[in-house]
C-alpha cells in the first residue's frame, strides 16, 4: 500500500467532526452492538457466508479481532504490524471476540486519544493519521461489521438514530474510485439504492446490498 494514502477533502473534515459528535462514545456503542450480536452465534454459524465477499463468519470474526487489537495498539503508540495479524479464535469464539472488543473500547477511552496520532500499519506504512480520523475509521467499520454479523445470523442490528446520523458523513468521506476495486479493499464499490432507511443508505454507500443475500 502507498505510504501516503489518498486522503480526500471530505476525509479531512473528520478532524472537525469530532467537535460536533462524541466519536469515542459512538464507536463504543457500535462495538458493543457487535458484541451483543456475536454473543448469539453458535459453532454451526461460523461456516456461514457473510456480506463480506469471500468470508465466512469465522473469517470475519478473525478479521474483526485483529482490527480491534491493531487499533488499540495504534492508539497507544505501537506501530508494530505484527499486532494486526490474524489470530486463532480459540475454543470459545465469543469470549475471544468479547475480549478483543473490550480491549479496543478501553484503549479509545483513554484521555486525549483524539489528540494523538495513529500509525495504522494495515492502512498505510509510514503515514500517521489524526486520532479523529483513526477512530472514525474504526467507528464506520463497526457500524458495517455489526450489520454484517446481524445479516449472517438472520438478526437485525439496532442503533440509536444519533449514531446512524453521525455515521452517514463518515461513510460519505470514505474514498471511492479504483481503490474500492483493489484486493483486500475494506469496502466495495457503491451499490445503487433507493431506500429511505439511513442505515441501508450507509451500507449501500460502502458496497453492500441492503437486501443481502438476494
Describe the structure.
The protein has a two-stranded antiparallel ribbon. Mean pLDDT is about 90; it is low at about 1-5. Strand 1 and strand 2 (about 130) form a beta hairpin. The radius of gyration is 16 Å and the shape is globular. It has 8 helices and 2 strands. Helices cover about 50% and strands about 5% of the residues. It is an all-alpha fold.
Q: Briefly, what is this?
A:
The chain is mostly helical. It is 48% helix and 3% strand.
Q: How would you characterize the largest beta sheet? A: 2 strands, antiparallel
Number of helices: 8
C-alpha geometry: globular
End-to-end distance: 33 Å
* Total strands: 2
Give the overall average pLDDT. 89
Q: Which features characterize this protein?
A:
214 residues; mainly alpha; disordered N terminus
What order do the helices and strands come in, and which of them pair?
Blueprint: H1 9-12, H2 14-17, H3 23-38, H4 57-75, H5 93-108, E1 117-119, E2 128-130, H6 131-153, H7 161-173, H8 198-205
Helix pairs in contact: 3-5, 3-6, 4-5, 4-6, 6-7, 7-8
Amino acid at each position: 500500500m502507498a505510504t501516503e494514502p489518498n486522503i480526500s477533502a471530505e476525509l479531512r473534515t473528520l478532524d472537525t467532526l469530532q467537535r460536533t459528535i462524541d466519536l469515542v462514545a459512538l464507536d463504543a456503542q457500535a462495538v458493543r452492538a457487535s458484541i451483543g450480536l456475536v454473543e448469539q452465534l453458535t459453532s454451526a454459524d461460523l461456516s456461514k457466508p457473510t456480506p463480506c465477499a469471500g468470508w465466512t463468519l469465522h473469517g470475519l470474526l478473525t478479521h474483526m479481532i485483529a482490527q480491534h487489537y491493531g487499533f488499540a495498539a495504534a492508539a497507544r503508540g505501537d506501530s508494530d504490524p505484527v499486532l494486526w495479524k490474524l489470530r486463532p479464535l480459540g475454543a470459545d469464539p465469543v469470549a475471544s471476540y468479547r475480549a478483543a472488543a473490550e480491549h479496543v473500547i478501553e484503549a479509545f477511552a483513554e484521555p486525549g486519544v483524539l489528540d494523538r496520532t495513529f500509525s495504522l500499519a494495515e492502512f498505510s506504512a509510514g503515514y500517521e493519521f489524526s486520532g479523529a480520523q483513526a477512530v472514525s475509521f474504526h467507528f464506520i467499520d463497526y457500524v458495517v461489521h455489526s450489520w454484517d454479523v446481524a445479516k449472517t445470523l438472520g438478526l437485525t442490528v439496532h442503533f440509536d438514530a444519533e449514531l446512524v446520523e453521525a455515521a452517514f458523513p463518515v461513510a460519505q468521506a470514505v474514498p471511492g474510485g479504483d481503490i474500492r476495486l483493489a484486493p483486500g479493499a475494506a469496502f466495495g464499490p457503491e451499490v445503487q439504492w433507493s431506500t429511505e432507511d439511513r442505515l441501508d443508505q450507509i451500507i449501500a454507500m460502502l458496497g453492500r446490498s441492503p437486501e443481502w443475500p438476494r
